[in-house]
Amino acid sequence: MTAGILGNCLVLYIFKFKYKQCNHRYFIICLAACDLTGSLIGIPFLIADMILTYFFDTTVCKISRYFNHLLGFCSAFIIMIIAIERYLKICKTNGKQMSYNMARRWCYFSIIFGIFVSLPIAFLYGKTDIHILTVLKCHYQEKYKDTFFPLMYQVFLVLWFIVAMITVCATYTHIVCTIRAHNAAQNIICQYTRVNNSLVSSEDVASRSSHLALTRTVISNRKSNSAIKAYRLAKMLFIVAALFFCSYIPYFGVTLVNITKPNVMRSLSPVEMAVIPLCLRSYLINYFANPIVYGFLDGKFRAECQNLLNRVIIRR
After folding, report:
1. What's the predicted TM-score (pTM) here?
2. Domain ranges of the chain
3. CA separation (Å) from 297 to 91, 229, 260?
4. C-alpha–C-alpha distance, residues 191 and 141, integer Å
5. HSE-CB for 203 with a 13 A CA cutoff
6. Using one digit for the tens of pLDDT, what is the confidence trace for 111-162?
7. Which residue intervals define the domain G-protein coupled receptors family 1 profile in the entry (predicted)?
8. Residue 67, number of CB atoms within 10 A of its CB
9. What backbone torsions phi and psi does residue 137 show, to the nearest 5 degrees?
């Protein structure tokens, strides 16, 4: 929880005030806002649920589960939009691009989308029976256990998860292929230029304009640097997406088994019973993982963190 709060506060501050206005900056800020909200609200509720398992208030249970699903939907939607925006930026350079205002509207829409698709949680979760006692365990309510509603909603969640994951994987695969094709074309051009230069006479070489050669070199370097930055940014955002989807796989696996084959869950060994709660909360990794990824793969973010730390130490 502490790592999520501190890390996402750093992301919000640095990307808000130290980066130029652009689409990926705004997307990262929105993701950090979701993760910070999860660290401030989602994790404390889950801790209370673990400590007060059988005394958890029904209303608090509903709010806790609702917020966790809402933040998950918002993050997944934003990650999918990031992949599409990167695809347009790198693979469709001559086509219509996503504007900054459009990126903002998509982020707003992700919140609205998350609010509506998470609403069933407010009705499905609540009081449930444990053996012969009726206690306030935060799970699907007893009246819905034998209905198709929990399974239907979980199937919807899994299908949405699969669609989002396939979309992201397909777009980043296309991005990688485009970048590799671009690099291969650049290498061919360089080799062709070297061959032509070797065939030019000394008189022709002497007559060339040094200013024109310098200009071409500068333009070539700028294009090369731009391609490298685009590749590094795409790589960083892909890792963020991969961590997000991987963190939800244990959760969906255990949840589906619990709904479709509840007898299996009752016959688990003590070790397996200890692992199950970790799987059900595996998605909490998202709340603190992204700042770590930015720290390793974004040189500017790492430098700004170092500068901020130095200023804090100097003031002390």
Report:
1. 0.83
2. 2-199+225-308
3. 22, 11, 41
4. 69
5. 0
6. 999 999 999 988 888 766 555 444 456 777 777 777 788 888 888 998 999 9
7. 7-294
8. 18
9. -85, 130
